Structure to design on (871 residues):
């Protein structure tokens, strides 16, 4: 589900319930807590699920010593551990689980300064994210790009984990509620009832693996809509004009999907790409008159096995429309340029000829490049080296003589490509020129895949500087020797990129997420300083009317879901190639969190005994009383 | 594990009354029918109360007012039930087990009271009892060591017996036109009902006072019933 819809619909529901005054025994905290969700692929499951709602007494843990103490402590019942994010390590969680006292876990991502302050560096991802789907998957001893990765994302937890992330009034009040409950329980030594407990339910319908789950219709493919755009409105499959691809991934991943906030990863590259597109669109020369095409691609679902890029590459290399017009399971009934099966809204992507692709510029993490950027390449081929040198020179020209873009292999070791979308292209043609630009040389920055690094001015500067170099290089590449400087004015507001949840969510036809919609509208409106219009019919050719102007770009969404998945003729997704990415997300039964008081089991047993004794005594009393009444009053 | 609470409180609230029902009333079809029809009378009275509550919005949070008119309505329906019983009594006595017994009217009053009591017990407490299946408890405001479930169970148990006694006393009072007995029923009904407000008050150990007052009223009522039964035999 889309995060914004999900949160707002939950809020509405919450307010309704509150208005009716039903909340008495329970306080619902669902809207202000973030669950860990179950995902599956062809081999198994990751993430969290509990088959039944779990009630746990709140128990605060602040250090690893507290964990040992909890495990050794003589306590009855199940507990919901409240702990800071930096204690979220697989070993800690498994230790807690094996104590048989664990009900669920509540993770405080950014607590107050005295409890659970936000960790400065934390990566729940693997040591080499997505490498099992990458270009070097068959090589032994692959380089581990994320050595500090904890591997949490790839773990399967059969108990619920919820995150608290106080950032506004609602979420802060929930945080305070939980922390106060935990502190009260501590005062009562976790033994003097009533104690404050929470019920965590992570009921997911999924079971076994992706293919089983899809067949039972309890899962949806992870993915969404990629966006591609070009100003070459006349691009065609057989025009033999070389294509320069500028690429970036839009999404990233985290243990808590709604809190996938990393700005450096994902968002920084997306913004750099939009900045490049904006700069080049201001070119004095008409872009579609250039000797080469420039194609911008923003891939979605990349964090889950390069879903967007591999789907895009496979579609532009081998797409065969089997049923033209409308077809069952395909929502696009009236598209003149669409395909019924395989279901596509339009076939404009077939105008891109893969063999014409000449070079690829990809933005990886580029938000923290204040000390310089590194160009990663698969091999030091002549064309790759030439491109690196070109970028190095241009960066020197921009920065008063001192270059800030270097070859990643400048220190003598070529670590080849970090996990990136370019791999999907190189998969088809290893000799393509492809450069991956990043702010890291050998290790992904610590925030990889889950950064909460809030954007600041230095990040904006970083993105602008690499966008500037790239725009000029692409420009130079596209027009041949006639190089002219183009001014870049990228005006980013830091608030724009703050707190954007950018987990890709699940694939649905014609339902692009927040970020793809933004990118689509941005790219579509470039070059739009043309004829005013009211509807698309006012514009020439394929142009569309967007915000009162005829747009002069081909900008389209492109389906993004795992390369190992296909939709069949009934419109149902199924696993077709288990060796490729097949990530699917479980449908949710319930994902709730509520807080309340619980009484001790001793208390409950006393209540039961009292009730039983009272009933037995009254049976005896009735039998005896009837006898007595008969004797004295002769009633019955 | 909170099924423990459910059964514990359920047995506390309804156990004594149900044991009387199964060991005494259920054996006699006539008594069961009487019980059900009196339960229906109580239900109408509470339906009218709830309609008033529903229509007059400012009453919502004012329990004192709600108690006032619902007790009055219950007493009115008790009087209506008595009048109908008087019309039916000759026929009822004719088919009774022991038509010559002096205590047929008392016996009818007893089961009518059970009908009132059990129905009020079900309506007022059962929704709360069902909640106890969930994991949460709510502590009683005035006695923080007890849950609202168990306090409610005590109150329900006592009220079922209060209804039995009230019905027997008021039948006696109505038939003999004894003003003292009738006013005792009405006043003690108000007293017992308002005493339950102590449960949710902020008075320290309020629920204990409330239950003690109810037990006291029950004790006096039982005394009155025994006194009148003995009086019937002497006549």
């Amino acid at each position: 589900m889309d995060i914004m819809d999900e949160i707002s619909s939950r809020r509405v529901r919450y307010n309704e319930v509150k208005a009716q005054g039903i909340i008495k025994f329970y306080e619902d905290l669902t809207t202000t807590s973030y669950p860990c969700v179950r995902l599956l692929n062809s081999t198994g499951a990751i993430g969290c699920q509990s088959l039944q709602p779990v009630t746990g007494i709140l128990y605060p843990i602040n250090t690893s010593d507290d964990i040992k103490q909890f495990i050794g402590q003589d306590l009855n019942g199940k507990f919901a551990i409240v702990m800071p994010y930096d204690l979220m390590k697989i070993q800690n969680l498994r230790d807690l689980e094996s104590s048989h006292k664990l009900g669920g876990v509540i993770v405080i991502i950014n607590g107050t300064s005295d409890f659970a302050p936000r960790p400065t560096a934390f990566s729940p991802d693997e040591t080499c994210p997505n490498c099992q789907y990458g270009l070097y998957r068959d090589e032994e001893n692959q380089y581990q790009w994320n050595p500090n990765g904890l591997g949490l994302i790839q773990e399967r937890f059969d108990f619920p984990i919820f995150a608290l992330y106080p950032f506004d009034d609602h979420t802060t009040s929930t945080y305070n509620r939980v922390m106060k409950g935990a502190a009260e329980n501590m005062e009562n030594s976790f033994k003097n009832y009533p104690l404050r407990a929470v019920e965590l339910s992570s009921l997911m319908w999924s079971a076994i693996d992706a293919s089983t789950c899809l067949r039972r219709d309890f899962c949806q493919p992870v993915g969404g809509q990629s966006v591609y755009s070009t100003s070459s409105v006349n691009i065609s499959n057989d025009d033999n004009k070389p294509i320069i691809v500028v690429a970036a991934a839009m999404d990233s991943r985290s243990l808590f999907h709604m809190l996938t906030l990393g700005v450096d990863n994902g968002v920084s590259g997306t913004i750099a790409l939009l900045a490049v597109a904006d700069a080049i669109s201001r070119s004095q020369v008409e872009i579609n008159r250039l000797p080469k095409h420039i194609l911008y691609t923003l891939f979605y679902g990349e964090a889950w096995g390069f879903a967007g890029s591999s789907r895009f590459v496979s579609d532009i290399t081998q797409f065969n429309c089997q049923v033209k017009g409308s077809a069952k399971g395909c929502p696009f009934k009236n598209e003149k340029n669409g395909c019924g099966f395989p279901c596509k809204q339009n076939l404009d992507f077939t105008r891109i000829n893969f063999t014409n692709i000449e070079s690829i510029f990809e933005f990886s993490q580029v938000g923290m490049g204040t000390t310089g950027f590194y160009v990663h390449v698969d091999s030091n081929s002549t064309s790759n080296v030439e491109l690196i040198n070109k970028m190095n020179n241009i960066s020197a020209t921009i920065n008063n003589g001192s270059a800030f873009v270097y070859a990643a292999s400048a220190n003598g070791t070529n670590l080849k490509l970090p996990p990136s979308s370019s791999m999907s292209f190189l998969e088809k043609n290893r000799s393509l020129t492809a450069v991956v630009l990043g702010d890291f040389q050998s290790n992904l920055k610590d925030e990889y895949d889950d950064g909460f690094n809030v954007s600041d001015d230095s990040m904006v500067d970083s993105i602008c500087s690499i966008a500037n170099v790239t725009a000029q290089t692409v420009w130079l590449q596209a027009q041949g020797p006639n190089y002219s400087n183009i001014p870049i004015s990228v005006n980013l507001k830091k608030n724009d990129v703050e707190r954007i949840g950018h987990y890709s969510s699940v694939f649905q036809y014609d339902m692009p997420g927040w970020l793809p919609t933004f990118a689509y509208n941005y790219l579509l409106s470039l070059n739009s300083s043309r004829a005013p219009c009211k509807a698309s019919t006012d514009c020439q050719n394929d142009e569309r009317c967007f915000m009162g102007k005829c747009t002069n770009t081909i900008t389209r969404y492109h389906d993004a879901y795992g390369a190992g998945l296909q939709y069949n003729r009934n419109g149902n997704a199924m696993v077709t190639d288990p060796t490729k990415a097949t990530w699917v997300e479980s449908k949710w039964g319930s994902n709730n969190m509520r807080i309340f008081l619980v009484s001790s089991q001793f208390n409950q047993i006393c209540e039961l005994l009292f009730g039983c004794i009272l009933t037995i005594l009254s049976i005896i009393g009735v039998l005896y009383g009837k006898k007595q009444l008969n004797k004295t009053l002769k009633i019955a | 594990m909170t099924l423990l609470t459910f059964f514990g409180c359920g047995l506390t609230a309804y156990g004594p009354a149900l044991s009387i029902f199964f060991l005494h009333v259920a054996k006699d079809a006539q008594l069961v029918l009487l019980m059900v029809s009196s339960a229906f009378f109580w239900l109408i009275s509470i339906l009218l109360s709830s309609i008033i509550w529903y229509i007059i919005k400012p009453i919502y949070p004012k329990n004192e007012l709600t108690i006032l008119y619902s007790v009055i309505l219950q007493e009115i329906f008790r009087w209506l039930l008595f009048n109908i019983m008087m019309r039916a009594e000759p026929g009822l006595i004719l088919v009774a087990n022991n038509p010559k017994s002096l205590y047929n009217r008392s016996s009818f009053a007893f089961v009518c009271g059970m009908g009132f009591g059990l129905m009020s017990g079900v309506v007022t407490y059962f929704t709360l009892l069902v909640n106890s299946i969930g994991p949460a408890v709510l502590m009683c405001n005035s006695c923080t060591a007890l849950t609202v479930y168990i306090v409610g169970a005590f109150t329900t148990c006592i009220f079922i017996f209060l209804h039995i006694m009230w019905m027997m006393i008021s039948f006696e009072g109505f038939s003999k036109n004894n003003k003292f007995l009738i006013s005792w029923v009405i006043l003690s009904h108000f007293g017992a009902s308002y005493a339950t407000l102590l449960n949710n008050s902020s008075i320290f150990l309020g629920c204990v006072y409330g239950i003690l007052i109810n037990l006291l009223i029950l004790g006096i009522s039982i005394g009155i019933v025994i006194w009148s039964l003995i009086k019937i035999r002497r006549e």
In short: The radius of gyration of chain A is 29 Å. Residues 527 and 552 of chain A are 6 Å apart (CA to CA).
